[in-house]
Amino acid sequence: MPDMENAPAPVTIAGVRDRRVAERQQAEPPVHRDVLFDVDGLTASYSGVPALRDVSLEIYKNHITAFIGPSGCGKSTFIRCFNRMNDLIPTALVEGTIRYHGLDLYGPEVDSVEVRKRIGMVFQKPNPFPKSIYDNVAFGPRVLGWKDGLDDRVEQALRQAALWDEVKNRLKASAYSLSGGQQQRLCIARCLAVQPDVLLMDEPASALDPISTTAIEDLMHGLKEAYTIVIVTHNMQQAARVADMTAFFSVEVDEESDRRTGILVEYDETPTIFTNPGDKRTEDYVTGRFG
Ligand SMILES: Nc1ncnc2c1ncn2[C@@H]1O[C@H](COP(=O)(O)OP(=O)(O)OP(=O)(O)O)[C@@H](O)[C@H]1O
Ligand SMILES: [Mg+2]
């Protein structure tokens, strides 16, 4: 009699398939991502004319997400939707939903000032206030009435923005005495001082020299441990260097009316967008054949 208990298990097709699936899963562990913003069917219009139509995507926590695409495709319009900056443009209308931590960002109970505290924004052109370096960074905490430990808070924000060593001996000097790259890092420090959750950056390095650009990119890498970052950039090498996820937008032209509307063409992990995109329009753009 063969010893049935110690006989090897019969090899079945299902068994082989299960083993292969298990091996593959070991080789590529599933990527775990927490959704921070869930955008669904978002259309943004100015004076009733859509600038960006029907965008749906998810922004993940502690990731850097880049928006790329030709001029006028709605990148700035879109990034402004994430902290309700479009509320400040009287002709702008945002339809569809953006959920932030599951909450409707445009819901009636949401205070847009609170939103902008949690979701900070850095613009293309550094825009420090005409105040001292210290007072720029202390501005937000003072508005919020955070008086205790202000010096420490200012120092911490400047350290996080990789500017502390360059300014620690001249905190009372005017912000305008800083170089463009330093001013941009000061604006980042000003955002960080109110301990936001998200940093939105619309072409933060486009006015900077390569050394300052590298400083900002290094900074982003360091910050994503603690923050979620969304960046608009025209510089595709920059998107490839810094972003985990990339969204490519383009412009659709209506032949009859000649109306131009921004659309989301493709959204994926950055290496996929740049080396193996699923859409011909993305491929043409990232290889420089268009735009
Ligand atoms: N405040 C505004 N009022 C009216 N139209 C606007 C306003 N801001 C943007 N638009 C229009 O919306 C469309 C998208 O503009 P947006 O600035 O979002 O594009 P973009 O992708 O950021 O372009 P760029 O790369 O040149 O910065 C454009 O047609 C633009 O003219
Ligand atoms: Mg723009």
* Span between termini: 76 Å
| Broad structural category | alpha/beta
Morphology? globular
Question: Given this structure, which CATH class of the domain at 32-125 and 197-286 is correct?
Answer: Alpha Beta
Number of helices: 11
- Helical content stands at 25-40%
> CATH homologous superfamily of the domain at 32-125 and 197-286 - what is it?
P-loop containing nucleotide triphosphate hydrolases
Query: Compounds present?
Result: adenosine-5'-triphosphate, magnesium ion
Averaged pLDDT, please? 90
Which strand order does the major sheet show? 6-7-8-3-9-10
Query: How large is the share of residues in beta strands?
Result: 25-35%
CATH architecture classification name of the domain at 32-125 and 197-286 = 3-Layer(aba) Sandwich
> Which stretches are low in confidence, meaning pLDDT under 50 for 5 or more residues running?
none
User: Could you tell me the radius of gyration in angstroms?
Assistant: 23 Å
DSSP E strands, number: 10
Q: Secondary-structure element sequence?
A: HEEEHEEHEHHHHEHEHEEHH
Describe it:
This protein has a domain at 32-125 and 197-286: Rossmann fold, CATH 3.40.50. It is built from eleven helices and ten strands. It has helices at residues 13-27, 75-81, 112-118, 133-143, 150-160, 164-167, 180-192, 210-223, 236-242, 270-275, 280-286; strands at residues 35-46, 49-60, 64-68, 92-100, 103-104, 119-122, 198-202, 228-232, 245-253, 260-269. A hairpin with a 2-residue loop joins strand 4 (92-100) and strand 5. It is globular and about 65 Å long. The N and C termini lie far apart (76 Å).
